[in-house]
Fold this sequence. Notes:
Layout (H helix, E strand, L loop, with lengths): L4 H11 L11 H4 L6 E3 L3 E9 L2 H9 L9 H13 L10 E9 H7 L6 E4 L20 E3 L7 E4 L2 H26 L9 H4 L8 E9 H11 L6 H17 L1 H12 L6 H11 L6 H4 L3 H11 L1
Antiparallel strand pairs: 1-2, 2-3, 3-7, 4-7, 5-6
Subunit structure: Homotetramer.
Function: Catalyzes the reductive methylation of 2'-deoxyuridine-5'-monophosphate (dUMP) to 2'-deoxythymidine-5'-monophosphate (dTMP) while utilizing 5,10-methylenetetrahydrofolate (mTHF) as the methyl donor, and NADPH and FADH(2) as the reductant.
Pfam family, one: Thy1
Amino acid sequence: MPLSSEHQAEIDDQRSHPTPTLRATAPGMEKHLYTAQPVLDHGFVRVIDYMGDDAAICQAARVSYGRGTKSVQNDEGLIRYLMRHWHSTPFEMCEVKLHVKLPVFVARQWIRHRTANVNEYSARYSILDREFYIPAPDDLAAQSVVNNQGRGAALTGEEAQRVLRYLQDDAMRCYDHYEEMISQDGQQGLARELARMNLPANIYTQWYWKVDLHNLFHFLRLRADAHAQYEIRVYADAICAMVKDWVPAAYGAFEDYRLGGATLSGRALECIKKMLAGEEVTQETSGMSKGEWREFQGVIG
Length: 301
């Protein structure tokens, strides 16, 4: 179960004491407050707090106008204009704070996005739980032959069973030794800050992660992409569903221009113009490298 009994009790208590407010609220996001969305085998994402909505983006863009001075249609058109022309500052007026439980190796990818405020569970102060991410058999894959940082075909048969057995046995053995080292039963016990170095990268950690909408969109554009590693992409997908309910107009523009769009180089645009004019263009005549040409073909189908 992703949620411990303590977490569930905390969530139930928070949801049972709603607080009136004069600030703007987003009905779609209110339903996500304090509700944990399970991810992977032991992880979750839950919204702790948020600020702003679609109207806040428009109000910041117009500055001199108050809420309600423009129609919803005008607001959506403005948001799409801002997204289309990369005017990012108005999106920074919205923020969200998430509580995330995730494997350490996913956290190390995630923390590369340095435009957020993070506070992680301290393994110097507290003892980590015996919880490890073990992939489903279908998610065990060989190294990709075309992408040095990706996976290829799924492992099968005895090899898949052996890999799963190694992952499970090694994780449990490392945790057994971790518990033995920090134990003060008949010994001094190794400091937690030192004992944690023996824990595997698939153990779960937790953090609070606060980010503005502009930088969240940047995170989602990279991590909700089909080429992102599966284990971080499922977290991004869960967050996408929350953001869609929170700021539907902004998310719609993001989905259209960023997730569903593509950025083309000047060289690629020239190739498209030649193709539309009936000219034959090949990788050799395009001026692109083999990798760039392969990506270009993927964009234009």
